[in-house]
Amino acid sequence: MFIENSGNIRKSRKPTSDELIKGIRSGDQTALARAITLVESTRPEDRELAHLILQRTADNSRKSVRIGITGVPGVGKSTFIEAFGGMLTARGEKVAVLAVDPTSTLSKGSILGDKTRMVTLVNDPNAYIRPSASGANLGGVARSTRETIALCEAAGYGIILVETVGVGQSETTVHGMVDFFLLLKLAGAGDELQGIKRGIMEMADSIVINKADGENKAAAKQAMQEFRRALHLYPPKENGWTPKVLSCSSLEKEGIEEIWQVINEYVRDTRASGSFDRKRERQNKNWFLTALESRLKEHFYNHPRTKKAMNELLKKVEQGVISPFQAANELMEKVSGILK
Amino acid sequence: MFIENSGNIRKSRKPTSDELIKGIRSGDQTALARAITLVESTRPEDRELAHLILQRTADNSRKSVRIGITGVPGVGKSTFIEAFGGMLTARGEKVAVLAVDPTSTLSKGSILGDKTRMVTLVNDPNAYIRPSASGANLGGVARSTRETIALCEAAGYGIILVETVGVGQSETTVHGMVDFFLLLKLAGAGDELQGIKRGIMEMADSIVINKADGENKAAAKQAMQEFRRALHLYPPKENGWTPKVLSCSSLEKEGIEEIWQVINEYVRDTRASGSFDRKRERQNKNWFLTALESRLKEHFYNHPRTKKAMNELLKKVEQGVISPFQAANELMEKVSGILK
């Protein structure tokens, strides 16, 4: 169980980076939580510390399995993760559950915000649940989630579940940070294929019809057939994987093991063919470039000389004394000491 | 009429920045076209020249009127712009027509690409038509369009029409660079309010039912009523403007003058209340910040030391020797001479 002020690091004192790094490596959830808070922060001194911790805890083994989970609100993502995560920890796995939810500022945490929906998993010593960072745009949330994945892996979590809700580009973002992408669907809503963004169907490595219990069982079976037919319309995946359509009842914990078997099959196949590694390589390159860009901006905008010049020029632009392009020129010249 | 190799500047020789600046100021379309090509380029030496030209031609008078025009494919944007632009030049106005179309790479210029659809306007000495820059993402197209607006204004174009098609975020982008936003719609398609993104209706300062001619006239009248009712559901605009619903026939050139009257009314009202200027101020601040960011990235990524370090680190990241975050750290340290 994760309680903020338990563990070796007390809330009263700011832990050093050495303490945090040691804590993360030994799997201490309090140290992990503290480090993630640094990663989510935009304060320059916190970012510096975060960079140092990420530098020194890096785990480049690629042993973990990162699974993206998406689906519209009401599809039962929390209940599914509760059942799926519980099954995994019962098998001896350590599971981290993260979320990419750029709407959480507005909706006060529409996903994972209410941990009480995952009662068992929250109290499971082998599970670590972290809601989405709030107050940031998708780019910011994506950056901190990528860094959080790295920290969780360093803390020994072998399975990372990244939950997202179908808002804007968030699925594409999550797809770009996971090995396996799982789309949760409901049956019995009448028009099964209605309202699915084409892009999301194409991204899915597996479609799982949730709530296949009681009266829904027959409808779930029919929905599975329809999705299988629909998936035939798409070109085959580059890595040779044929997306699997499954059903489960998160409530009655039926079909959950089968999903894990499919994911295992995927991981085994793609590791053997090398496409698992190639995907990670592509993602790593992309992570590097986005991390670099955010580092560059942090460095530039946090510099006192930039701040001073920026304030003056914003006023001039507002008053219409100079054009936006003139102001950009002037600023680049004024801070030429920062940029050589 | 605009012919690439007419005017004072010949294709055979690269014009100097002084020649281009002089040419733009005197309204020479060849000089303008050359400068826009520099603005659209990503080559460092072209960008340097573009910055210099933008610096020295800046017109901060805010006398121009920038009008965004959007609508689904088939609504008749080209025909409308042909009729609307022709009416404006007949009144002695100088009109520039630009496009924001991030899909043009794929579709080879779905809008404005085929200038033959605007036969009269293309041959009008007081009109300048420039298709969307191709080969760039929305951010890149937006940047070059903003800079192109500034160049056209410096060349004496008092009315800037920015056409866009409803793809992704392009309307929002165009809305952020114009004074007045016009949404073209069709009537008689049965379910009038179907398929309109809510955000776009809210952005519109006027909705114009196009193709209100022949058998369509009655349907257009009905559509106008429906849109008026729909617009009542939205909260009033901050600047006090009530969006107007109009109809026109671009083919028969009916109702075109009325649209211009509405825009004039809008410009008069908002200039009197100060909200015209406030909108420009907000936009200018935003243009400044985005211009600055692209300048910063250009400077950083084009630097030889960055390029060298980048290549080495990309390889290490790919091989999994170091993590993406370690690589970002290392690069920032290696190029610390560029960033002080």
Question: Largest contact between protein chains?
Answer: A-B, 45 and 45 residues
Instruction: Report the end-to-end length of chain A measured between terminal Cα atoms.
Output: 50 Å
Residue fraction in strands of chain A: 5-15%
Report the oligomer: homodimer
Total count of domains of chain A:
2
Largest sheet of chain A: 7 strands, parallel
Model description:
- The structure is a homodimer.
- With about 350 residues, chain A is an alpha/beta fold.
- Chain A has two domains: about 1-55, Up-down Bundle (Single alpha-helices involved in coiled-coils or other helix-helix interfaces); about 60-270, P-loop containing nucleotide triphosphate hydrolases (Rossmann fold), CATH 3.40.50.
- In chain A, about 50% of the residues lie in helices and about 10% in strands.
- Chain A has a seven-stranded parallel β-sheet with strand order 3-2-4-1-5-6-7, sandwiched between helices.
- In chain A, helix 1 (about 15-25) crosses helix 2, helix 1 crosses helix 3 and helix 13 (about 305-320) runs antiparallel to helix 14 (about 325-335).
- The first copy, chain A, starts with 16 loop residues before the first helix and ends in a 6-residue tail after the last helix.
- In chain A, about 45% of the residues are buried.
- Residues about 1-5, about 105-110 and about 190-195 of chain A have low confidence and may be disordered.
- The interface of A and B includes residues 281 and 322 of A.
